[in-house]
Amino acid sequence: MFSKILIANRGEIAIRIIRACKEMGIYSVAVFSEADKNSLHVSLADEAYCIGKAQVKESYLNMHSIISAALASKAEAIHPGYGFLSENSEFASLCDKYGIAFIGPDAKTMANMSDKEKAIQIMKEAGLPIIPSSKVVVNVEQAVLEAEKIGYPLLIKARSGGGGKGIRLARNVEELKYGFHVATSEAASAFGDDGVYLEKFLTSVKHIEMQIIADSHGNVVCLGERDCSTQRKNQKVIEESPCVRLSDDIRTKMVQSSVKAVLVTGYKGVGTIEFLYDGKDYYFMEMNTRLQVEHPVTEMVTGIDLVKWQIRVASGMELGFKQEDIILHGHAIECRINAEDAYTGFRPSCGKIETLHIPGGPWVRFDTAIYQGYVIQPFYDSMIGKLVVHAKTRDEAIRKMKAALCELIIEGIDHNARYNEEILDTEEFISGKYTTDYLSTLEMI
Amino acid sequence: MLFKRPKNSLEGNTKIQLKLFKEKSDTAEKEMFTCKKCKKTYSKNELSQSFNVCPYCNEHFKISARERLNMLCDSVSFSEHDKDMTSVNFLGFEGYDEKLSEAKKQSNENESVVCGVCTIVGIKTAIFVMDPFFMMGSMGSVTGEKITRLFEYATNNSLPVVGYCVSGGARMQEGILSLMQMAKVSAAVKKHSDMNNLYICVLTDPTSGGVTASFAMQADIILSEPKALVCFAGPRVIEQTIRKKVPDDIQRAECVMENGFIDNIVGRKNQKSYLGKLLRMHMRYRV
Lengths: 445, 287
What we know:
The complex is a heterodimer. By secondary structure, chain A is of the alpha+beta class. Helices cover 35% and strands 27% of the residues of chain A. Chain B is of the alpha/beta class. Chain B has ten helices and nine strands. In chain B, helix 5 packs parallel to helix 6. The termini of chain B are far apart. Chain A binds chain B through residues 1-3, 22-26, 43-44, 46, 50, 64-65, 68-69, 71-72, 74, 76-77, 97-101, 312, 315-317, and chain B through 1-3, 5-6, 8-15, 17-18, 20-29, 32, 34, 39-42.
């Protein structure tokens, strides 16, 4: 086991990891930017090092500064948390160069999975279902033929495209014929390559992700799914586990697919396989090679401490449970509490927290780094906490969450507890039918 | 500390598999350097590339005489004088022999000053550089003798002298004889000057005691490195005597320059070109 770990992150996730270290008897080293000198993770850790200015580029993304802090503190491993350097393969190889264990996959696996196209290719070869698409189509006739195979609606995408450019939606043959000409000329002028291909356009889909953990002894365990379809502008707002709309049959298939994906890539550590689910079929979307923000949801229903196990497998330990030991108990919901004003265009809010009351009671968990008197800085992510509840049934969990949200008092800044509460009250949420696009249709009062 | 550390012992006791990591980080650690001023850590390679000046906060760290010569002299132009001259414990001062051999080991030099002739940007110059790693550049009889000889050589050959001073003062283990070096070197400086030769002195951190009181302050042009301590009696000695706290910046180069004792402060990176310019301006053309 590592005797000292440096946590290359801030906020609630740094706190989460430091807490795990404390329980495991591991010395923790915090790093902080000049703006974060009064942060909770700095006082909670056994040691703390300033790594640069407030801007993330100068501090939390400053690889050499973090490596230096690790060497100075003689930390044996670095936990990257999520965001920042957690999916940076250059950082993982830099850690290796300096003899520091990186708590995550090796640099090569990470690089393969962060290249979306490459990842899809690998998964396709492994036999995972991927979103149906055609090869490059050269003329309208071929496009129409291919489109019939895939089915409408579909997207015409530029081969060399990126950043949403060179994409056209086609709902029928007419639109396809027109869109093909527009897309090819657009692609030619934007990327100097007029190659386009067709891809099935999935509307009203659920974002379902499978939590996996793999050790270095060849054991892979899937810890069930999370339904993260409550999204606003591709940002998750509420996550829950299990997903009510997933049949046991599909779930078993998805678990098998996820385990297969991990075995194919030789992945080690905790990770997430993200799928799109249209109520009938599921498609591989991407793999996240890190601990997820919403990991507590899985922890609640499985009773497995993901952070502790992540550290254990990184230090070479064998997993202490098998796939058959994993049973999802009850239902867990997580609401992300963001410092933002949901009623004026989700404008981020910062400032001093004058009053703070954290909800309590059985099976209510609030992961946060804020405290009364803490000043929220404008430099970082607006998420200030994660409220997680666990109950026997989904209905009870929703009731518990609503009660907990009302108990959450953060004065001095704007936050989205009320917005979360409104989502919980919508018909779509209660029925569990909601898809990734439903929040955009939700009218705000 | 706000939070008490829980008394949890380390989970498992598998320290063995970490051996590999330990070995690697030990070697990595040797290559790393942490700036005392700005606390930034970077590789020693990066430090030596910037001539022992912190690349982030411009703090000038001590640099050995040889490294300084490498930095200043045109390549392979340096030829050393009186290389094997070394101090002896003629007073039988207790512990001096051990101190000398320790200093030799630490600095890889025979004495606290390295003298010789070199070219700086193509101009032939006599040069002496004191070494902070040899008893903090303390001035013993051999130090004085070597510098005197260098001045005499420069006088005879009509060469300018560039001197780098770093010293804690006269070497107390040699008593009055080390103090006599002040007079001896001063005489040689005067003779060198009388023959219209140029003497440039660069004060580095720290220049104090007998060195300040003699050849460090006798140069035609006196330069200094940023924030170098330049004084006669050091701040601690003054504090113990007058029983008052001395302001931090009072004996720093910047303050000394403000009071007219230093002509200019030149950062280490610019020193070679700056010295080259001065030497060129004062070059003597024989008709």
